[in-house]
Amino acid sequence: MRSQSWILVSALLAAPAAAQIESEGSPMAVLQDLRTDGVPIEFVQPPDVGAYLADDEVRPPLPLRYGALMPVSINPADNGVWDELADGTMVWRFKVYSPGAKSIGLEFDDFWLPDGAEIYLYDDTLETVFGAFTSINNQPHEQIAFAPFPGDSVIFEYVQPTGVEDGARLSLGTVIYDYRNVFNLEAELDAQAAQAGGSGAGGSCTVNVNCSEGDAWEQQKRATVRTLSNGGLCSGALVNNTAGDGTPYVYTAWHCNQGSNTVFRFNYQTANCNGGSAPTNQNVSGATNLVNHQSSDGRLLRINNSIPNNYLPFYAGWRNTSTNPTFAMSMNHPAGGPKKICVDNNGATKTTANFQGIGNVSVWRCFWNVGESQGGSSGGPLFDNNGRAIGALSGGPGGTCVATTYFGRLNVFWSNANVAQYLDPLGTGATAIAGLDPFGGGPGSFPTVDSISPTSIQTVSPNSPVVATLTGTGFDGATAVEVDGTPLPASDYAIVNDTTITVTLYPPYKVGTYVINVVEGLLDDSINLGSSFALVPTIDLVNSSPAFLTSTSPAEIYMGGFPLETVYLTGSLSNVPSAFPGVVNLGIGNNGLQLVIIGIFTVDPLLGYAKTEVNLPLPAGTTVYFQAANLSAIFPTFPLTASNIETGVVLF
Predict the structure, then answer these.
(1) Which is it for strands 523-532 and 456-458: parallel, antiparallel or unpaired?
(2) DSSP letters of 356-367?
(3) CB under 8 Å to 471, separation ≥6 — which residues?
(4) How far apart are CA 595 and CA 625, in angstroms?
(5) What is the model's pLDDT at position 443?
(6) Alpha-carbon dihedral 376, 381, 385, 390, rounded to 10 degrees
(7) Which of 440, 359, 371, 453 is nearest to 405 (CA)?
(8) Beta partners for residue 31, in sequence order
């Protein structure tokens, strides 16, 4: 580590699979077999790559430049080709070709789509297709940047079906010529990390957010986003405001220099601690730059489009005071890779740091006990012990496995720029607010069900109703509990605490598996409860003591055993045993003198039980006893096996 040499935590680019919100669809080149070899070519003269690379060596350590911005002028009136299909659908296509480019990016300086129109990007062989892009991607500033498309050419297709308003505005003003190969950047970082003893992009000291260190911060994971803008990649955080209205404000660093065509990627994190897949398709494009201040290294953006519900955005709370936090935690995207976590168990302290390209910045200084930050981490939020954002990552000393990181302070940014007009629109003067969770509002995390007790039940249980206990985390915010997709009434489950829920299940019980689901808004987690045939003859008097039997309503009796077993159900007013040598021994009936055979039944192999109803025209206070004896369908032998005894009292 260079103790006195400062570098800005620069933003390294890792290209997304798609920068905008994609919808279902297929290009007309596929659906209508439109040939690609006849699409007119718009040739873009390649830049002097050597000159760009030489200039990169002497540029300040700001976000890494990966592409040359090449001005063009391409529009439907003057370029490309129009095809009219048999149903009247109009299709406009053109092909951008710039020899030697590793990828091609398209930036439209005038962009607006009518409802029903679609756009696709694809290669000559239709092996790689981006889209459909629709009117949901329209921006207030009427511009858009499409994600880098691999290779040195790309075909653009605009589809306007019959009946769709004729009024699309499509003016391509810039082609981004990728001379560094953004698709290999992360692979190169992976290799560097492996040489350092690590296992993935970001280096050997980073910790995935889905390791145990991140268990308590599920909501903060959903607030932390990756941003792609102007050829650079940074991190940021969705933040709440005092109106609690879900306006998609993003707090990040000034030096990240996000523009109007910024792409925000949500939930870009590995599935587990040791790796796994990380989704790359949860993106929203377009932002408005609201407030920025250089010497505070703070920037506030507003995402233009609505964030899809399936992205599960969380709007982090914030604190804008200068009190040192006793605990500090950051989430960010080092090296442009999946989300990582850093933890300083001792909190953060105030100091001033000088960064090339920014100047002196009032910062929080953290010494990580867990994790590190690297290029791409810039703008990543610093959270206090309450999970509230208090800063955005500015930089740190150079080196590998850097344990020290500096964050521009939100309270300084607040005092130097008019941040309050956005984050405190009610004019409350609040110095701290909690986060906003539109999908449950629980104080902890995603509901996670770890275990269930019992793990299985029988189709007939003499102790019905059955109470199953679920253990896990994040239960305090649960909004429903479902069994096989059907919500239970509130009386049938109880949230005991954040780690325990009890669920009451009433007979009859099916053979197979119950899926019990804990729901928090759009979040949920489930666990299976097995249900099997009774291993020994078992009966259940459902509406029995300590409930009640009545002389006016029949008693329900469920009888369990192995499939197709014959069940002899008996009843008595006496609990004195009855012995029938070689046939069966019962615990009721007073030696057969007070024994009644109620009926003979068969265990249904599909249901796992037999059922009957018994009328009891008896005086109040009468105690009734029931017991069954089963004859096996596989090995029918005597004496019969007797079941448990069920008891009920007639109340009226």
Answers:
(1) parallel
(2) TTTEEEEEEEEE
(3) 449, 450, 451, 452, 453, 499, 500
(4) 10
(5) 42
(6) 140
(7) 371
(8) none
CB 569 within 8 A of CB 557: yes
pLDDT the model gives residue 574: 96
304 Cβ contact partners less than 8 Å away, ≥ 6 residues apart: 139, 140, 141, 286, 287, 288
Q: Cα(50)–Cα(437) distance, rounded to whole angstroms?
A: 49
Residue 159 forms beta bridges with which residues?
A: 91, 118
Tokens of 124: 């000559």
Sequence-distant (6+) residues with CB within 8 A of 115 are 134, 135, 164, 165
Quickly count: other Cβ atoms within 10 Å of residue 271's Cβ.
13
Q: What is the pLDDT of residues 45-90, one digit of tens each?
A: 999 999 988 887 776 545 556 788 899 999 999 999 999 999 999 9
Q: What's the CA gap between 496 and 502, in Å, rounded?
A: 7
**pTM score, whole prediction:** 0.61
CA distances from 467 to 462, 493, 542 (A): 13, 9, 15
d(CA 256, CA 252): 8
The single residue listed with the structure tokens 């069940």 is 567
Beta bridge partners of 96: 42, 154
- At 273, phi and psi to the nearest 5? -65, -40
Residue 335 has what DSSP assignment? G
Q: HEC string of 252-265?
A: ECHHHCCCCCCEEE
Fold of 538-649: S-adenosyl-L-methionine-dependent methyltransferases (2.20.130)
Identify the pLDDT of residue 445: 55
What's the pLDDT at 222? 94
Residue ranges of the chain with per-residue pLDDT less than 50: 1-19, 61, 186-203, 441-444
Q: Which helix (H) or strand (E) holds 414?
A: helix 410-416
Residue 478: what pLDDT?
79
Instruction: Decide: 372 and 403 in contact? Cβ < 8 Å.
Output: yes
Percent of residues in the chain assigned helix, strand, coil, to nearest 5: 10, 40, 50
pLDDT digits (tens, 9 = 90+) for 326-354: 999 999 987 667 899 999 999 999 999 99
Q: Residue 650 gets which letter from DSSP?
A: B
The neighbour count for residue 483, using CB atoms within 10 Å, is 18
Task: Give the pLDDT score at 305.
Answer: 86
CA dist., res. 647 & res. 631, Å (int) = 23
Closest by alpha carbon to 503, among 529, 531, 476? 529
Identity at 594, one-letter amino acid code: Q
How far apart CA 458 and CA 212 sit, in angstroms, is 36
State the Cα–Cα distance between residues 269 and 210, nearest whole angstrom.
8
Burial of residue 233, with CB atoms counted within 10 A of its CB: 0-12 exposed, 13-18 middle, 19 or more buried:
buried
Cα radius of gyration rounded to whole Å, the chain:
34
Q: Which fold does the domain 448-532 belong to in CATH?
A: Immunoglobulin-like (2.60.40)
Report DSSP state, residue 580.
E
Domain ranges of the chain: 12-183, 448-532, 538-649
pLDDT, position 12: 28
496-499 long-range contacts, CB within 8 A, separation 24+: 498/443, 498/444, 498/473, 498/474, 499/471, 499/472, 499/473, 499/475
**What single string gives the DSSP state of each residue in 112-133?**
E--TT-EEEEE-TTSSSEEEEE
Q: Tell me the per-residue pLDDT of 358-406, one tens digit each, with 9 for 90 and over.
A: 899 999 999 998 887 765 588 999 999 999 999 999 987 655 566 789 9
